[in-house]
Inverse folding.
């Protein structure tokens, strides 16, 4: 795809500086816009939890040039292994065959949340994105295009991007009463981290400290899955348990007792019990299931949602970060098109149109897969396990030897998920609608150079004018 530049530089405010916010900030800046990120935290916390970067995400990270940095901190996944939680026997396998991965043109990677956060943060800073930490947004005026912080300071922008996650304050402004409708998930998800140096001292656990597998132990109404992150320094485990679990809220920074957790797994295979004893961090999260929201863009055409704010997924799925990164690629590719500022609402509508069906389908698929590996013991679970065993025999065959029906049955849905290219989706849309939009709009040309904010694209060569976002600030308790 040709790399484009918009004819005008817009001012974006991004509320929230996690994966969705940082990737949007970097990507919008990269195509020539001015970007300010407002983040409520002080920006120093890095989560140790594991993230899967499926090929649809890795492909975009590679496009942004993150490949070499990613190679240093990620692990290439080779297969998904399904084990019986109690006996530890391998029941099922999904091998990421080399030929398949070649066709997908990107790897399935395991990466630590904190490492990905740092990669995006560094890239955004290098490209001149502005950051304000300890800046909790409390109010948004979608028609005026302003956001107000808890401190009272007010900022204005051409576009406000709500990247403020699962409990977004921007969401209700855009979505309306639908934001309040939701049902508590039947399961809670617990994130655990184990230092691999401790695992290497135990002969049963040492092989796991080198393994490129994503291992899933399936049990009664429960599933544990784990993978290596952070250059094999940590083993990131996730447990999906039935709710209620005491002391659990919808946050990523609350902790529960390991002893409470361990006693639930006394009948599990020895490696699970040993792993639980070695945990260094435990973070539980609860999830509220929302039907897909009708609107992601406010009718003012100035406020848009991305990431978990737009499509809250159950925690620790395979596509939480991937969908956020796809959102960022979609938005930035659209905002690189040569349209006028007056056409901003049109671009935001295109973003909504391009993303909603994809995200809804992925949300549903993720939930269905999680429930499948968490079946309570009974006839359905026995049928599932038998299916795993049959499929395992065929999975061990070479890709060329496997029969077509088996490959289609196993891979059709994954290929749909992994093969999606967010840039291509915008290109297809532009091929269809671009001509009409170019005729309708007051396009490019006479508007001259893109005005760059502080830093300029690619590290600060083309500084023209520092962006102005502040409308009013608090000084000595007085609004000025
Ligand atoms: C601290 C943290 C740790 C996480 N760790 C993991 C992990 O280990 N594994 C995993 O799979 N997923 C993790 N997640 C979730 C993961 O980031 C998301 O599922 C996904 O990557 C998409 O993220 P997001 O940026 O849309 O939302 P989030 O990651 O939830 O980020 C939202 C951001 O917005 C900020 N914010 C919220 N409200 C306001 C406000 N009013 N004003 C200003 N800023 C605001 C938050 O502080 C946060 O930084 C974590 C999320 C957070 C916030």
């Amino acid at each position: 795809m040709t790399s484009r530049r918009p004819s005008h530089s817009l001012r974006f405010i991004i509320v929230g500086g996690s994966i969705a916010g940082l990737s949007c900030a970097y990507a919008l800046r990269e195509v020539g816009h001015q970007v300010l990120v407002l983040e409520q935290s002080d920006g120093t916390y890095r989560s140790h939890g594991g993230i899967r970067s499926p090929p649809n995400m890795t492909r975009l990270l590679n496009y942004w040039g993150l490949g070499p940095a990613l190679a240093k901190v990620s692990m290439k996944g080779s297969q998904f292994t399904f084990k019986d939680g109690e006996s530890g026997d391998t029941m099922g396998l999904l091998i990421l065959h080399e030929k398949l991965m070649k066709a997908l043109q990107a790897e399935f990677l395991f990466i630590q949340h904190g490492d990905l956060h740092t990669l995006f943060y560094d890239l955004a800073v290098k490209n001149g994105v502005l950051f304000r930490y300890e800046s909790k947004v409390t109010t948004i005026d979608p028609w005026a295009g302003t956001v107000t912080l808890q401190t009272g300071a007010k900022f204005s922008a051409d576009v406000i991007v709500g990247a403020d996650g699962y409990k977004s304050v921007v969401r209700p402004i855009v979505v309306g009463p639908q934001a309040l409708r939701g049902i508590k998930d039947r399961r809670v998800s617990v994130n655990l981290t184990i230092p691999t140096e401790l695992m290497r001292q135990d002969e049963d656990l040492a092989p796991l400290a080198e393994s490129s597998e994503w291992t899933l132990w399936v049990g009664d109404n429960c599933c544990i899955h784990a993978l290596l992150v952070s250059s094999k320094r940590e083993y990131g485990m996730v447990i999906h348990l039935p709710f209620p679990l005491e002391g659990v809220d919808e946050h990523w920074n609350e902790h529960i007792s390991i002893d409470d957790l361990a006693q639930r797994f006394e009948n599990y295979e020895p490696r699970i019990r040993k792993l639980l004893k070695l945990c260094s961090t435990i973070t539980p999260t609860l999830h509220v299931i929302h039907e897909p929201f009708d609107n992601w863009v406010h009718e003012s055409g100035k406020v848009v949602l991305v990431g978990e704010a737009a499509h809250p997924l159950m925690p620790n799925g395979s596509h939480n970060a991937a969908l956020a990164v796809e959102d960022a690629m979609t938005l930035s590719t659209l905002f690189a098109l040569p349209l006028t500022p007056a056409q901003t609402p049109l671009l935001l509508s295109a973003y909504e149109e391009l993303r909603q069906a994809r995200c809804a389908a992925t949300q549903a698929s993720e939930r269905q897969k999680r429930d499948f590996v968490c079946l309570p013991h009974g006839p359905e679970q026995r049928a599932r396990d038998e299916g795993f065993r049959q499929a395992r025999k065929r999975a061990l065959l070479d890709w060329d030897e496997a029969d077509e029906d088996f490959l289609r049955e196993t891979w059709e849905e994954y290929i749909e998920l992994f093969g999606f290219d967010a840039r291509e989706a915008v290109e297809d849309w532009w091929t269809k609608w671009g001509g009409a939009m170019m005729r309708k709009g007051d396009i490019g040309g006479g508007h001259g150079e893109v005005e760059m904010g502080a830093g300029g694209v690619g590290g600060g060569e083309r500084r023209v004018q520092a962006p102005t976002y502040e409308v009013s600030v608090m000084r000595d308790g007085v609004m000025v």
Notes: Residues 354 and 425 are 7 Å apart (CA to CA).
